[in-house]
Amino acid sequence: MQSIKFVRYLFLGMLLGIHCQVRAAGSAAGTLLTVSENVAGLTEPENPLKGFWRNTWLCRKKDRQSIQTPYVHYKYYGDDDMISFTVRYDDRGDMNLTFQGRYMTYRYLSESAIEEAREEQEIEMQDNDHFKLTWIDWATPLETVFEEGWERTTLPQKLARAWAEAYHGAKDSKFAGCWKLKAVRNPSTEEMVSVNYKYYKLYGGDCFFTFVSQKNGSAKTSFSGKLGTFRVFSDYLIEERGGHNGVRWFDDNNFEMTWFDGKNARIELWERVAFPSEYSRILEPFDKYVMEVFTTDENPVEQHTSEVVEQPDILPQYPGGLNNLMRYLSQNIIYPESCKKEKIEGHVIVSFVVGKDGKATDFSIVKSPDERLGQEAVRVLNGMSRWSPGRKDGECVPVKMTLPVFFRLNGDNQDKK
Fold first, then answer.
1. What are phi and psi of 11, to 5 degrees?
2. Best CA proximity match to 94, nearest among 241, 244, 245
3. Strand partners, 218
4. CA 144, CA 135: separation in Å to the nearest integer?
5. pLDDT tens digits for 6-40?
6. Which among 49, 210, 211, 340 is placed 20 to 30 Å from 278, CA to CA?
7. How far lies 363's CA from each of 321, 352, 379, in Å?
8. pTM for this model (two decimals)
9. Can you tell me the distance from the alpha carbon of 136 to that of 169, in angstroms, rounded to the nearest whole number?
10. Distance CA 189, CA 200 (A)
11. Which are the contacts of 101, defined by CB distance < 8 A and separation ≥ 6?
């Protein structure tokens, strides 16, 4: 029964796919956190964390400015084990993502402490659907203490739908079923190199699902993989995650796939296998849970309208990051001559909406020391490159942004950002 629980939560984590900040296990002695001890001999306390949660904010302790991350972080707490995983979506609006995470042992100790992978951590329950978690990143030189906010959630329908396609989709395709990566061929030397890890792929319907796991001691297991769209053009050409891959069949149970990873061609040999026994034992209960999420009307539906989303899972990102945006503004803003003569300076705050296509629109001057400076800021911002759009539950959504633009005078020269 324990192994069945283990596989179920691990498999669920792989489906969704990871901020798993790497929290290297440290000695319980010398911990920087104050946690309550579970009194020996007393009945195990009721676990209020059981279920799915989504990370809403992250910051270093005593530094309340949230750290923005390009991924969505989920956790699932069971009775005595849990999964922690992050999801990174690609730049397209369809369901294509990379995930990674960890399956761990878990115990709810008290209203102020839990144990993840045998390491105690401090919690603060704010209400039934929100809690704060404090933990130490042992991998940093000064053992940085982080705080996180968590909000109760459910399995997003879009992810449940992708699983339903991969597992319940049409099985009449030649590709349908479970495959194991057998070897990788060097396209230059034709040398075939066997892989020393277990990497599986499941094809079905319009989606595919890949996963690999590695045991990290008795308390946790790391895993990673991909979930994405899949399309068959012919027995010799398929599309995965938007890329066209060539296929060569040796027989019905072995094929070779060639794809381009952005730098080099990669050739993989895949062998048809039975679904791993450790996973097949939990297919029925896992699938039952997913299909309940997929079919119920009470769960959030991921069909967003054109309304601006106030709190996306992932904020829009400017190409090259904030430094690149500041560089663009500095190189393109023209300080109005009339403002220079009148020695008008200060910062302009402009709001705008980054649409689902990444284009910035609906500019509005929130604050400006002078209308002329505000108009110049809007002119330059209107010429920005397209952003990577914000996301909610994996879907591109319009997001309202606010940006300060600084105008400073320094003698005869202007310092503008």
1. -65, -40
2. 241
3. none
4. 9
5. 333 333 343 333 333 333 333 333 333 333 344 44
6. 49
7. 20, 4, 9
8. 0.65
9. 43
10. 26
11. 13, 14, 17, 18, 20, 83, 84, 85, 86, 222, 223, 224
